[in-house]
From TrEMBL:
Pfam family, one: p450
Organism of this sequence: Suillus luteus UH-Slu-Lm8-n1
Protein name in UniProt: Cytochrome P450
Family affiliation: Belongs to the cytochrome P450 family.
Chain positions recorded as heme binding sites: 524
């Protein structure tokens, strides 16, 4: 075994050496744009920008403009981009030149298989063609009842939390109880995505439910973050070793007696991937069998399990795949890849957005009250008997809004949009050039020598950071109050004002003119699902529960103060001294809304 280990670490050393060589060769192609001084000989500007660097990421764009040279690890130079014209060029016009980077793609392939976030070029295009119609508005409309059932379960779980803590009924209305809502939001997002996308009954909101697959999915995101350190080596190993040797290396690296935390993390990820893989295979087989048994008429949407299963996206995708031409058809490996990718892409992103929306409403009680009035008003209208709706009441008799009403409530829409704009779940992304290229700028920046330039030239293999946050906070298009949370800005379209557009200049995002879900053919395919879920959860919780920022004092007299930490995602933590500043928590003070 010692020999095997030696080989394993030998290959790792070779990989590190190749990495250093590659980075050294890039020195010859220095970027000619201005940017901040290097802050650390090895870490460059990486730490201050990307380890809890929300404000720094905004400040750099405000100081240097929409294309900035930043210093990455080991002396490498990256381009930090947020200019609207540049982003359109990079993400839409010449997307084939500005691709996802090798590390991202290779790691995704290992973890998720052949899904959308692991493929490039023609294969990616073919997958998008199959999947785009699955996320159509008419399919979302069909899915809403599934989401509504889960939102109501979430509401019941939170309300029972209040009941458990306040013994007397009158106290439940008067007294506030502090609850960490984050685990509940995360469970409800998991149920939404499992039921809506896979048609798999995860029952994560049922805390008594022990399900290996659901647990694995919950741990997936954090486990990937913990093993980021391996990411740069994966493409090198993938390029230079056959599948046999790659498997052998993973075996050596995950042998149980290697004691370090990094290896433990790696083993944990491997275990999660194995569980995910076998569960996805079982679900795929089950869905296939159900489809073969069901009637071929497209109108049939009922099955033995309660009438909703075949409305899930997986079933829709399988039906579309079966009836497509052989050239367009996705292989089983690709179908399995999509299942894994959807869960990963839709889980933490939506949880983070929902958590932020509730936090912002807790921070702005007046907006919360106005929104509650809007939702309750819509529900009251909805209870009028002649209104045409198919799912107006749930089993507890509460009103449910139809898809069209839910998606068109003006203030709900404004709150969701403003939250997603200001606090995008994925604040930055990376890209790499496949060949030398140049792109134009909307707003000129300075070159390294101080001249004004309106285009940037980049060499092959140049790394870029797409700054979604800097784009969404850009004062040149959003106005001077760009960094303030003002849902009102979305209510002015009737006055002829388009939010995010100034003098005809705007970002070309798929969702309004913000970059939260990106643009181009790698943009978020699930944004309609995310928007519907966030709106439905808010519309279900607010009529029943009032949310406020924490105000209880602990034994030392400290009140919990929430800080949103930016590390890949935006995560709420409780600041010291009331919290550890590390563990994700979102304690909010809750009380029942009096009927
Ligand atoms: C608030 C919630 C969400 C946000 C902010 C978000 C944002 C994004 C962004 C920025 C990308 C581009 C990533 C890149 O290019 O590297 C992306 C891609 C993607 N998203 Fe989302 N997303 C959300 C929810 C969802 C949901 C609910 C699903 C699925 C049901 C989903 C599925 C995907 C997929 C499959 C991709 C890859 C698309 C491709 O490469 O072609 N996302 N998302």
């Amino acid at each position: 075994m010692a020999f095997a280990q030696l080989i394993g670490y030998g290959v790792l050393t070779l990989a590190v050496w190749k990495l250093i060589q590659r980075r050294a060769s890039k020195k010859a192609n220095a970027l000619d744009v201005a940017g901040p001084e290097k802050e650390h000989w090895c870490k460059g500007n990486m730490e201050s920008m990307f380890v809890d660097g929300f404000q720094r990421c905004l400040d750099i764009a405000a100081e240097y403009g929409g294309a900035v040279k930043i210093h990455a690890l080991f002396g490498e130079e990256w381009l930090y981009v947020s200019d609207p014209r540049a982003l359109h060029h990079i993400l839409v016009k010449e997307q084939h030149i500005f691709e996802e980077n090798d590390g991202f793609l290779s790691c995704n392939k290992l973890v998720f298989g052949d899904g959308l976030i692991s493929t490039l070029g023609e294969q990616h295009r073919k997958q998008r063609k199959m999947l785009n119609p699955v996320f159509s508005t008419s399919n979302m409309r069909e899915l809403l009842p599934i989401i509504q059932t889960i939102s109501h379960q979430l509401k019941s779980a939170l309300v029972s939390n209040l009941s458990a803590r306040s013994e007397h009924d009158h106290a439940r209305y008067r007294e506030s109880v502090e609850v960490d809502v984050l685990p509940w939001l995360s469970r409800s997002s998991l149920d939404c995505i499992c039921e809506g996308v896979l048609g798999y009954h995860s029952a994560a909101l049922d805390t008594g439910n022990e399900d290996e697959y659901t647990d694995a999915l919950r741990m997936l995101g954090p486990s990937i973050t913990k093993t980021m350190i391996f990411r740069p080596f994966v493409p090198i190993v993938t390029r230079n070793c056959s599948l046999y040797w790659r498997k052998k290396m993973v075996d050596w690296l995950t042998i149980s007696w290697l004691p370090t935390q990094t290896m433990r993390n790696f083993r944990e990820l491997r275990h999660i991937v194995e569980i995910m893989d076998s569960a996805s295979r079982a679900i795929l087989q089950e869905k296939r069998a159900a489809l073969q048994l069901s009637s071929p008429t497209p109108s049939q949407t009922h099955d033995t399990s309660g009438g909703t299963r075949e409305k899930d996206m997986m079933s829709i995708m399988l039906r579309a795949n079966a009836s497509s031409s052989e050239v367009d058809r996705l292989s089983d490996a690709e179908l399995l890849g999509q299942m894994n990718v959807m869960i990963f892409a839709g889980l933490e992103t939506t949880t983070a957005a929902l958590a932020r929306a509730l936090y912002m409403l807790a921070k702005h009680p007046q907006v919360q009250e106005q929104l509650r009035t809007e939702i309750c008003g819509a529900m009251a209208v909805y209870e009028v008997p002649d209104v045409d709706h198919s799912h107006a009441k749930d089993e507890s008799g509460s009103a449910r809004l139809s898809y069209d009403v839910l998606m068109n409530l003006p203030l709900l829409n404004a709150v969701v949009r403003e939250t997603l704009r200001l606090y995008p779940s994925l604040p930055v992304l990376t890209r790499r050039t496949t060949e030398a290229a140049s792109f134009p700028l909307q707003f000129p920046v300075r070159s390294a020598s101080g001249e004004k330039i309106d285009a940037v030239h980049v060499a092959k293999n140049q790394r870029l950071v797409i700054s979604i946050i800097a784009a969404n906070h850009n004062q040149a298009v959003w106005g001077e109050d760009a960094s303030e949370w003002k849902p009102d800005r979305w209510l002015k379209s009737s006055e002829g004002v388009t939010p995010g557009e100034k003098d005809g200049v705007k970002y070309s995002g798929v969702y309004s003119s913000m970059m939260t879900f990106l643009t181009g053919n790698r943009s978020c395919i699930g944004f309609k699902f995310a928007e519907m879920e966030i709106k439905d959860v808010l519309a279900t919780l607010l009529p029943a529960i009032h949310f406020a920022l924490p105000s209880e004092r602990d034994d030392n007299g400290n009140v919990k103060e929430i800080h949103w930490k930016m590390s890949g995602f935006h995560t709420p933590v409780v600041k010291a001294p009331a919290g550890d500043g590390e563990t994700p928590h979102l304690p909010l003070s809750m009380r029942l809304v009096r009927e």
